[in-house]
Amino acid sequence: MTDSKMPVSRRKFLATTALGAAAAATGTVAMPSILRAQGAAVKLGVLHPVTGALSYSGQQGRLGATLAIEEINAAGGIKALGGAKLDPVLGDARSSPDGGTAEVEKMNSAGVSAIVGGYASSICLAVSQAASRYDLPYLVDVGVADSIVTRGLKNTFRFGPGFGVIAKTAIANLAAINDQAGKPAKTVMIVHEDSLFGSGVAKLLNAQLPQHGFSILETIAHPTPTRDFNNVVLKIKAQNPDIVIPANYYNEYVLLARTMQQQHVRPKGIYSVLGGAASSYKFLKEFPEAAKYIMDCNHWFDPRNPKALALKKKVEAKGQFFTYEVYLNYSCVQLVADALERGASADRAKIIAALASSTFAGHIMPYGPTKFVNGQNEGAAPANTQVLDNDIKVILPAAFANAKPVFPMPA
Amino acid sequence: MFTPAILIAAIFNGLLTGAVYALVALGLTLVYGVLHIINFAHGALLSAALFAAFFAFHQFGLDPYLAAFLLAPAFFACGYAFQRFVIGPASHGDDRNMLLVTLGIAIVIENALLYAFHADTRTIDVPYAFQSIDLGFTFLAVPRLVGFGAVFVVALLLWLIMAWTDTGKAIRAVAKERLGAELAGIDVAHIYAVTFGLGTACVAIAACLLIPTYYVNPSVGNAFVLIAFTIVVLGGMGSVPGALIGGLVTGVVESLSGLFLGDSLGQIGIFLIFILVLLVRPNGLFGAKA
After folding, report:
1. Cβ distance B1 to B67 under 8 Å?
2. What domain count does chain A have?
């Protein structure tokens, strides 16, 4: 027994010591190589769900990130690192948290300095945790779940707004728009999809809208996918609310808006919170009639910023829509590049420190001053948009607006 | 709780939705009735047909209703080829193998669509998409009414083919007694393929009726196929009138239970009826005794 046990443990012992020695060796070798590598490329993980159910959003996100990398490289790379170029390491989360975690492992062994992306909240949650094991800086592009940044992970940063801030802003702005118009709207109906996102929005709205003087006639939940919205629209028609608030994904939003138009249901306003289609150029292009005057509180770019408009033009020239995945990822990559400049190092710990104290400015988002508290950018805010003159205009916040809200909808 | 106007509107709406369910189920029940296999590729074929109708409109400006006359024969040919050259040979005469082959085809089609067109949802905007007929208490969308009428025309045509043509007689013969039909000189492999082709053509027509008011993406067919399976079992496996009535009943039940229980629970009504029918009439409403 002992004879047979001994060699195994000895082998194990040898193996571990060999690994340890190898790790130590690469560690000591790596240090001077980074110092010497002034001007050598900085590897940046670009992780999105580019296949599976979320592939459209993932591909848009990848587009935004790679566009930013191309621009930074074309402009001379990271100057503090001797003009080091950013080298994207592309990864596919395959539309699942497991897929995201697996990519983190791969990217870590590929030696990336930071990871950008995630898209869905569930993927962001998994990726942030996996990356934190390697103290690998991770920038959440979209994922709005508040729990992504409230778990105390030092490596995780979110440049965009979280769910709580978006919902709060949405409710305050709805009340402001209504007050400004002389309070024509008193009653509200909420149509939401029945998973975490839609139900969460509905719960917050139900709790807070009555405080602003709105009475909620009915809250209708529907599954994703829903094939037919006629019943929902019949109910809306019967109750005749002043405002309809949809909180659902693109496909269902399109069906709902089309059915409302077919059934000649015209409330005083359609106001959505993180609406799947409400502030989508695609929806506007395909259904200009159904999209008219729809308002949304969502991620949006700064419409007065020439850099944002130039990027929009560039994306559209590629035959793609300028969706929020594109400009959020674009901004996240810029934020990393900015942190590389500030820290003047591709070292992970230095990047994390530079991000935590970042005052990144000159970006294309309609945000306040960048300030990270527990990984969340306190300056981040959603914008209110409205479909006006066959375009999507920003109506709030006033500092970034390029149109005035039209409410109630003209008949 | 609800005024009669809403109830009637909901019933109408259920009938209009149910008609399209029926057409999807019709193709499925036909294949089951003759080949005795559940065609798992049905949903994927519906997605493919929706894409075909989308591109016919988008690239060539072909109206979906006109495209149906083109796509139905094209998909018939596809279905025929699938059964004759893929499913038939690959199954080696074993029904269980056929089942797995259709499942494989479903996966291949769906992922080929995803690869070619991405997961992007697309819609078309035909001029009549928002036209509706005013009944006073509700509006009936014109494209859905057209769909409703077309489903009955297709069902009638199918019935005529089955009842009066030699091919139809051969199909029925193969469905009833395969060995006997083979002994009588019927080319069973050909009849299998024709049946699969007819089922696929039904899907193509359903796609053309759906696209004016619906959307398309690579996994869209799945939303319909589960309900179609339910209808096939409800109406009786292999029964054409069963699929038609089953589809309409399912549409109305779904609509009414959606109205009373909310859309999240709307599906409960369908499956309650489904379980009841299975308990009382295990062969379905119109199913022949096994």
Report:
1. no
2. 2
CA dist A67 to A77, A132, A326, A340, Å? Answer: 13, 26, 9, 18
Q: Which of A53, A54, A262 lies nearest to residue B130, judging by beta carbons? A: A262
Burial class (CB in 10 A: 0-12, 13-18, 19+), A291: buried
- pTM over cut 0.90: no
| Average model confidence (pLDDT) across chain B | 88
Residues of A with CB below 8 A from B132's CB?
262-264
Task: Provide the CATH topology of domain B4-280.
Answer: ABC transporter involved in vitamin B12 uptake, BtuC (1.10.3470)
Looking at the structure, tell me whether residues A118 and A196 fall in a common domain: no
Structural contact between residues A223 and B263, judged by C-beta atoms closer than 8 angstroms: yes
Give the model's pLDDT for residue B1.
Answer: 63
Q: What are the residue ranges spanned by the domains of chain B?
A: 4-280
Same domain membership, residue A388 and residue A259: yes
* Max Cα–Cα distance, chain B, nearest Å: 62
Cβ burial, residue B260 (10 Å; 0-12/13-18/19+): middle
Cβ neighbours of residue A315 closer than 8 Å, sequence gap 6 or more: A63, A64, A67, A321, A322, A326
- pLDDT of B263: 77
The average confidence (pLDDT) of chain A is 88
Tell me which chain A residues have a C-beta less than 8 angstroms from the C-beta of B11: none
Q: Say whether A234 and B9 touch across the interface (CB within 8 A).
A: yes
Supply the ipTM of this predicted assembly: 0.78
Q: Which residues lie below 8 Å from residue A205, measured CB to CB, with a gap of 6+?
A: A167, A171, A188, A190, A216, A219, A245, A273
pLDDT at B288: 65
Looking at residue A362, which CATH number applies to its domain?
A: 3.40.50.2300
Q: Does position B280 have pLDDT exceeding 50, yes or no? A: yes
Residue A228's domain comprises 164-298+384-396
Chain A hits for B224, Cβ within 8 Å? 227
CB atoms B6 and A258 under 8 Å? no
State whether A180 and A277 are in the same domain: yes
DSSP A347-365: -HHHHHHHHHT----S-SS
Q: In whole angstroms, give the CA distance from residue B87 to residue B94.
A: 11
8 Å CB contact of B3 and A262: no
A47: left (phi over 0), alpha (psi -120 to 50) or beta: beta
With beta carbons less than 8 A apart as the criterion, state whether A199 and A255 touch.
Answer: no
For residue A263, give how far its alpha carbon lies from the nearest alpha carbon of chain B (Å).
5
Domain shared by A345 and A307, yes or no: yes
